[in-house]
Design goal:
The protein has 476 residues and is an alpha/beta fold. It is built from 15 helices and eleven strands.
C-alpha cells in the first residue's frame, strides 16, 4: 500500500488555529471554505486512518448555518469565539447523529447518538464544526490506535509507525494538516503520548479542571479532557474554551501571550524551579530503558530552560514497588463500569478480553484495595513533587513502534511493552496533576521527541507559559 507523505494544506496549516480564528472572525474566510479545506485534506490523507467516521454533509450544513448566522445576526445574539473552526472527536465520545463504536466490533452497529456529550455541546456552542469521529484503540485502552473494525491510525511523520493512543486518530489528523487542533482525552497518557509521537503540543489538565469531565472522585477518575495542537497558543485557546463558557474570560491564552511578549522584550521574569527526572514508577515490574534521542531531548530542554533563567536540578522521587500492579488493577476495573454484556469477551480483541477477565477475577474488593493504596501513593508522591515548581521527564522512552507491533504480542506482553514505551504518563493521571507534552527534537529519521512538564494542582496557566517559553527558546 502506497502511503501519502504528510503535506500542509495551504488554508489550514499555513495558519495556526489562532490565526484561523482571527481570519474567520474578520470575514477573510468563511466557515464553509475552512470546512471544505479540512474535508479535502481528510480525503487526501485517508490512508492515514485518522477517521473512523466522517460526516461531510453534516459538517458543510453546519458551516453554512454558521455563515448565515454571521451575515444575519439575531438581536441579542452573542458572538461565538471559534466561529467555523473545524475539529473532530474521538470515537469514545458521543456526537449527536454519529455512532459511538468505541473502536469495538461489539458496538460496530451502534445507532447514532441522540445528543452531544457535554464537552461536544460546549465546543459547538463556541462555533466549531465537528467533521466526524477519530480512530481509537478498543475502548480507548491502549497507547496505540489500532482496532479490529477499521484501518489503523498511522503517524504522519512515518506512516509505518503508530501515532500513539488513545487519541492517535486525532493526533494524526492534526499532524497531517487535516485539522488545526483537536480535543482529546487522557486516562493514562492518551493526549500526551500521541502528541509526543506526532510532534504536537498536548495538555492534560488536572483532575476536576474541565467542568464537562466526569466528577472527580479520587484515583478512580483517571480520565480528563484536553487539547492537541501545533502550538502552545493554540492549545491554550482550546483549553480556555473547554474550561470557560465559549472561551470568553479564559485566562490561559492571555497568560501565554503576556509571558511570551515579556520574554521577547527582555523583561525580567521569575524563574521556575524545575526538577529533572528520568525515574519511572513501573520498575521493577517493567524494565524501562531510554532511547538516546529521548535523553537528548530532555538534556536539550533542560539546558535551554536553564539558559532562559529557570533553575533546573536533578530530581529523584521514590515511587516504591507496587505501582505497576495497582495501576493495572484500577485501570482494568474501569471496564466493569461499562454497560457490556456478560459474553463481551467473545466479541472483543485479545487485550480487551484479557483485561475484562482479570478485572472480573479481581473483583470489587481487590479493586477497592488498589484504589486505597494508590491514594496513599499519590499523596506521598505529590508531597515529593511539591519540593519543586515543575517536574520535567521524557514522554516516550522509545520511538513509536510500527503499526501491528503491539497487536502481535500476547496480551500480557502487549501491556508490559506499552508500559515500557510510555513509562512517565499514567502516574500523572493517578496524581491528578496537570502536565503538558512539548516537542523538542527531531531525529535523523524525522521522528519527534518531547518532554513532559508536570505542574502543581491548578497550575495549567504556569505550565502553558513555561511551555511557551521553551517553544520560544527552541525557535532561537
Amino acid at each position: 500500500m502506497a502511503l501519502s507523505e504528510p503535506t500542509r494544506p495551504a488554508r489550514l496549516l499555513d495558519r495556526t488555529a489562532v490565526e484561523l480564528r482571527d481570519a474567520l472572525a474578520a470575514g477573510e474566510l468563511s466557515a464553509r471554505e475552512v470546512t471544505r479545506a479540512a474535508l479535502d485534506a481528510a480525503a487526501a490523507h485517508a490512508d492515514l486512518g485518522a477517521f473512523a467516521f466522517l460526516d461531510a454533509e453534516g459538517a458543510l450544513a453546519r458551516a453554512d448555518a454558521l455563515d448565515t448566522a454571521r451575515r444575519h445576526p439575531r438581536d441579542g445574539a452573542v458572538p461565538v469565539s471559534l466561529h467555523g473552526l473545524p475539529l473532530a472527536v474521538k470515537d469514545l465520545t458521543d456526537v449527536a447523529g454519529m455512532p459511538t463504536c468505541f473502536g469495538s466490533a461489539l458496538l460496530a452497529d451502534a445507532p447514532p447518538a441522540a445528543q452531544d456529550d457535554p464537552l461536544v455541546a460546549r465546543l459547538r456552542e463556541a462555533g466549531t464544526v465537528v467533521l466526524g469521529k477519530t480512530t481509537v484503540p478498543e475502548f480507548g485502552l491502549d497507547s496505540y490506535s489500532e482496532n479490529l473494525v477499521g484501518s489503523p491510525a498511522r503517524n504522519p511523520l512515518d506512516p509505518s509507525r503508530t501515532p500513539g493512543g488513545s487519541s492517535g486518530g486525532s493526533a494524526a489528523a492534526v499532524a497531517a494538516g487535516i485539522l488545526a487542533w483537536a480535543p482529546g482525552s487522557d486516562g493514562g497518557g492518551s493526549i500526551r503520548i500521541p502528541a509526543a509521537a506526532c510532534g504536537l503540543v498536548g495538555l492534560k489538565p488536572g483532575r476536576g479542571t474541565v467542568p464537562t469531565d466526569e466528577a472527580a472522585d479520587s484515583v478512580r477518575t483517571l480520565t480528563v479532557s484536553g487539547p492537541l495542537a501545533h502550538t502552545v497558543e493554540d492549545a491554550a485557546l482550546l483549553f480556555d474554551v473547554m474550561t470557560t463558557p465559549e472561551g470568553f474570560g479564559g485566562r490561559a491564552l492571555a497568560d501565554v501571550r503576556r509571558a511570551t511578549e515579556d520574554r521577547r522584550a527582555g523583561a525580567p521574569h521569575a524563574g521556575v524551579r524545575i526538577g529533572l527526572s528520568t525515574g519511572s514508577p513501573f520498575p521493577p515490574a517493567v524494565e524501562v530503558s531510554l532511547a538516546r534521542p529521548a535523553l537528548a531531548a530532555l538534556t536539550r530542554a533542560a539546558a535551554l530552560l536553564e539558559a532562559g533563567g529557570h533553575a533546573v536540578e536533578p530530581f529523584s522521587p521514590y515511587y516504591g514497588e507496587r505501582y505497576h500492579e495497582d495501576f493495572r488493577t484500577v485501570w482494568t476495573s474501569g471496564l466493569l463500569r461499562a454497560p457490556l454484556p456478560p459474553v463481551a469477551e467473545e466479541h472483543v480483541g485479545a487485550v480487551a478480553a484479557s483485561f475484562l477477565r482479570s478485572a472480573r477475577a479481581a473483583g470489587p474488593e481487590k479493586a477497592a484495595a488498589a484504589v486505597e493504596r494508590l491514594e496513599e501513593w499519590a499523596q506521598n508522591v505529590r508531597a515529593q513533587f511539591g519540593s519543586v515548581d515543575v517536574v520535567m521527564t521524557p514522554v516516550l522512552a522509545t520511538a513509536p513502534p510500527e503499526v501491528g507491533h503491539f497487536l502481535a504480542l500476547p496480551p500480557e506482553e502487549n501491556y508490559a511493552a506499552q508500559c515500557a514505551f510510555t513509562p512517565y504518563t499514567s502516574m500523572v493521571n493517578v496524581l491528578g496533576l496537570p502536565a503538558v507534552s512539548v516537542p523538542v527534537d527531531r531525529d535523523e529519521a524525522g521522528l519527534s521527541w518531547s518532554v513532559q512538564l508536570i505542574g502543581r494542582p491548578g497550575d495549567e496557566g504556569r505550565l502553558l507559559a513555561l511551555a511557551a517559553h521553551l517553544e520560544l527558546l527552541l525557535a532561537g
